[in-house]
Design a protein that fits this description.
The protein has 2 helices and 2 strands, in the order αββα. With 71 residues, the protein is mainly α. It folds into 2 domains: 28 residues; 41 residues. A two-stranded antiparallel ribbon has the order 1-2.
Length: 71
């Protein structure tokens, strides 16, 4: 792939990530706070494990890479 095209794709992905970051509080679901994300509060600490968010991100990235692999 030509370096210019790679930079344009990377720029577009960064733009979309910025939009998601900006408008995340207004979405009906909040990334990082999905059902299946574990939060354990104890007296002195908090443990957070975003299992559902990781699975969703993995699925979306796998679909994205599969689309670009075929071309």
């Amino acid at each position: 792939m030509h370096p210019g095209r790679s930079l344009m794709i990377l720029g577009g992905l960064l733009f979309l990530a910025g939009l998601l970051w900006t408008f995340a509080p207004r979405l009906p679901f909040r990334p990082g706070h999905l059902p299946g994300d574990f939060i354990i509060h104890t007296k002195n600490s908090t443990f957070y494990f975003p299992l559902a968010s990781c699975l969703l991100a993995s699925l979306l990235l796998s679909l994205l890479f599969a689309l670009f692999r075929k071309r």
